[in-house]
Amino acid sequence: MSLLRYINTVIKDEIKAIHEQFRESRTLLIAFLLCVIGIIVYLQPFPDRHIYIGSSYKGGDWYQMSESSAAFLSEHGLDSQVMVTNGALDNVNRLIDPEDPINAAYTYGVALDDAQRKQIVSLGSVTYEPIWVFYKKNRIPNLETPRGLIKYRVAMGPKGSGSHAISQMLLKIYGVNTEDYPNFISDSFENAEQRFLNGDADALVMVATVVDPIVNKLLRTPGVAVLSFENAEAFDKRYNSFDAVRLPAGSVSIYPQIPVQDISLIATTTSVVVKKNMHPDLQLALLMAIKEMNRSSENLFFAKRNEFPAYVDPAVPLSPVAAKFYDYGPPQAMRYLPFWIAGFIDRAWLLLLGLVAVFYPLSKLNLHIRKLRFVVHERPFYEELLAIDKQISTQQLTDEEKNAIRERLDSINRHAVEHAVPIGEEPHYFDLVKALDLIRRKL
Length: 443
Fold this sequence. Notes:
Elements (H helix, E strand, L loop, with lengths): L2 H22 L1 H18 L6 E5 L6 H15 L3 E5 L4 H8 L8 E4 L6 H4 L2 E17 L17 E3 L5 H12 L10 E3 L2 H10 L4 E5 L5 H7 L4 E3 L5 H7 L4 E5 L15 E13 L4 H14 L26 H9 L10 H25 L5 H26 L4 H20 L7 H17 L1
Parallel strand pairs: 1-2, 1-3, 5-6, 5-7
Antiparallel strand pairs: 3-10, 4-7, 4-8, 4-10, 9-10
Helix pairs in contact: 3-10, 10-12, 13-14, 13-15, 14-15
């Protein structure tokens, strides 16, 4: 017998023995199947491939970032769709609505209340977003702080947007409650921009990145100035949710130089948040997309390279998937395997290691099912032969009793012949045959 044929025979005998064991032990089979199903359910190996990202108005900075992420996700076999919304608060309200398809969104942690924060988890912050206070120099010749806006018509983002909520927070720090002043008008971002450009508003307050089309346009519009917060560093020290950033002279345009001088700004960070029950592999794929997106120099305008994504805004609890990503990085298997297989391996390796730790010592016991079953099958025959031998040795048997014993020995012999002998157990089979022959001769 060749080595390959021997191995093939061993495998066949082992599988046959396992099959017979499960057939006879239905309880064991059911328990085994329940364990397998439980492991599969626990590890969730088959995620839904749909990611619906809540952004903001079409063409805005969040919309652009969502499209960039969606392109990366599509390359990895995911169905990603960018949803137009009213901004940060609307995103979260839709995210916590079980009937809404949105399962990931951009938001500002500082703009949310406690009830909203408890129903979602964060994948981390992705960029700095300054609070822009644009004003027309011919209407407002000298603006030193946001409090000076109470005398002018001010356009703000829509109610329900994070931009509106954060703008209100900033103004309240300066003692201005916008609800008490009808000259503060909330509208869609597009309408707020038109009000400002058409002269129906003297100032515009909004939160956005430099790449936002409205911000980019107003920075280049003649006669429009940006309020510089001289005490921006104080905000950084005083409030956890605000950071001091600087818009360097010429950073928007070298020639003509825009802005003409450095501008100090107050910024918050944009967080990507997801449903608590979002599949871990989808969260991991989204984190990879965000990391890829932040390789672009435009998205690094106020940030250092490799600064984002990062968990810098603790307002929303961090997802366990994101925590592991920040501590250990993405799974190495993701470089070579589809994301869902790599994610499954990443979650399953500890369980597999535990199984190896249990079964490896057992394997040293040579606990082979085919051998065990053969021994169990033969054991009753040997017990019966012991009883017969004792009977022969201690009693005077009649011819009728001897014939009965001979018939029983023949029956045992037939059962032994008819039962399959697994490979490696042939010596034990012939030991039984020799024992039968010995009893016959002794009889």
